[in-house]
Specification:
- The longest helix has 38 residues, at 2-39.
- Helix 3 packs antiparallel against helix 4 and helix 10 (225-248) packs parallel to helix 11 (259-268).
- It is elongated, with a radius of gyration of 25 Å.
- It has a single domain (40-305), classed as MetI-like (MetI-like fold).
- By secondary structure, the protein is mainly alpha-helical.
- The chain has helices spanning 2-39, 41-63, 95-131, 133-148, 151-164, 170-178, 183-196, 200-207, 212-223, 225-248, 259-268, 277-305.
- It is built from 12 helices and no strands.
């Protein structure tokens, strides 16, 4: 009985020691993340700019009536004044509500591109890089073929076709942009997995009897999280750039106040020639703010994921 109780006590102590070690490793990981966030200026600046954007939309969305973004909600082409802080456009829509309620729609398109593009890239990249052989050859050929296709021309054709048919919504616009956002993530993730699968810890996992998918999810993917986060932000920025480009050509959602469509309507009605600067300057500044924000975050995450770029802190 004493031997049994002693063994039970030893096993309990081992379990407690193991849990304490796991907590220590978790705490150490979060401490490293927080330390890097505070000392990496580009990442810190990007996150603060993102927080400012979110605060503007959340607070402004509660204070500014979304009906102000509808036509005839104000006078025609009125300059900024006390009642209309950023003026109105040719159709009487107020620019401030257009910015506050339209910017999240533009970000939604980028989220579609980031989620779908990176999701497909993760699946294909991990399978091709880890399995290699025939699967790798098929995925590589497909991605190489699609990369050679001019994406902008395809997006223009698809967007114009849908626009002439049932009409183009923000969700449809996001899916169109996302459909061509998976090739580069697939290639880059595949290259990373190819180099990581020969690492010592992967060989140890194989010797311990771990299966292929268990190795992918428990060994490879956690080590690529900073890189995947940077790739997601980059895919978001590319998706927003493609969406704004299509909208500036008039191929976006016609009845949604996105930033790109606001710029398009200012071009359509000759705001630059009429010196209606308050119509095209605010959306242009907001688009630039979004791109700078995403660039800073992606650069900071890339330094974290890439040891060659990481600075000694």
């Amino acid at each position: 009985m004493q031997d049994q109780s002693a063994e039970t006590g030893q096993s309990s102590a081992a379990i407690r020691a193991s849990s304490e070690a796991d907590e220590a490793r978790s705490y150490s990981a979060w401490s490293q993340i927080w330390y890097y966030f505070l000392h990496e200026r580009m990442l810190t600046a990007g996150v603060l700019m993102l927080v400012a954007l979110l605060a503007l939309w959340l607070i402004g969305g509660q204070l500014v009536d979304p009906k102000g973004a509808e036509p005839i909600s104000g006078p025609q082409a009125a300059p900024p004044q006390a009642k209309y802080w950023l003026g109105t456009d040719f159709n009487g829509r107020q620019i401030l509500p257009l910015m506050i309620h339209g910017a999240p729609l533009t970000l939604r398109i980028g989220l579609y591109a980031g989620i779908v593009g990176l999701g497909v890239g993760i699946i294909l990249g991990f399978i091709a890089g880890y399995m290699r052989g025939t699967v790798d050859a098929i995925v590589r050929i497909i991605s190489d073929v699609f990369i050679t296709i001019p994406s902008l021309a395809v997006l223009v054709v698809v967007a114009s076709t849908i626009k002439e048919g049932a009409g183009l919504s923000v969700n449809a616009m996001g899916l169109i942009v996302a459909s061509l956002a998976w090739m580069w993530p697939t290639r880059v993730i595949r290259a990373q997995v190819l180099s990581m699968r020969e690492s010592n810890y992967v060989e140890v996992a194989r010797l311990n009897g771990m299966g292929d998918f268990e190795i992918i999810f428990r060994e490879l993917m956690p080590n690529l999280l900073p890189f995947l986060a940077a790739s997601f932000v980059g895919a978001m920025a590319s998706g927003i750039l493609a969406a704004v480009g299509l909208e500036a050509l008039g191929l976006g959602p016609q009845h949604e106040p996105t930033l790109g469509m606001t710029i398009y309507w200012s071009i359509y009605y000759g705001a630059l020639l009429s010196n209606w600067w308050w119509w095209y300057v605010p959306p242009t500044i907001l688009v630039a703010w979004i791109f700078v924000t995403l660039y800073l975050i992606a650069s900071g995450l890339d330094k974290w994921a890439n040891p060659r770029l990481r600075q000694s802190l």
